[in-house]
Amino acid sequence: MAETEQTPEPQPPEAPATAMPATPSGGTPAGRPLWQGVVFAAALAFGAWGLWTTFAPVGEVVQPRGQRARVDALEQQVATLKRSDQISRDANRDLQGTLAERDEEIAGLRADVAFYERFVGATGQRRGLTVHTLQLQPQSGQAWHFTTTLTQNLNRGSVSSGQVTLSVEGTRDGKLHELSWDDLRQQPGAAGIPYSFKYFQEVGGDLVLPAGYQPLRVIVRLAPKSGSAVEQSFPWADATRRSDPGA
Prior knowledge:
Elements: H1 32-55, H2 65-120, E1 130-138, E2 143-151, E3 160-172, E4 175-179, H3 181-185, E5 193-197, E6 200-208, E7 214-224, E8 230-235, H4 236-240
Antiparallel strand pairs: 1-2, 2-6, 3-4, 3-5, 3-7, 7-8
């Protein structure tokens, strides 16, 4: 009898084995420690940034480019305005000085006009030979330059001529001492300064004071070619500040 081949009976499919996730000894999933590390690192970075922004020097704070450019532009404007203000102040100061000089010049011209009218005008008071003003200006060392204005309108049309000499009264070593014209000119027998005019003339010259001498008064002496000599005194302080003549 022939052997018959037996066909195996089909078996039901086996259910796939479900892989159980491996758990650490603490019972927590394996991916959780990595996530916690990332969060912890982020927290550290944020804290470090906060500390840097809090304690960093002001000069090291990084500003946006647009804000930095605006700050630079404003600083430039402030510098320009300050420079403009300084220029305006300097110009105003120069203008004030010029105006003061012009006012002084105008006052001098008015005084000259009044002077001319008084001595040349028909209504001017008649006066003989007179020392109208005396001015002293310091030079180098003990030297001084004097300028005196001589006037006369008593004899109109006639010429007054002669010589001018000066003397100075003061103290030296605590004692009164007078310096003659020869002493002031440092020359024995020094000639006087000549003058010749009809109405007025400005005469000047130089004089030298000894060291340690304290001048108090200046005497101007006119020696005309005809007539009596004329003397007029001026306090030294008045003559050195361009004041009116003293008595």
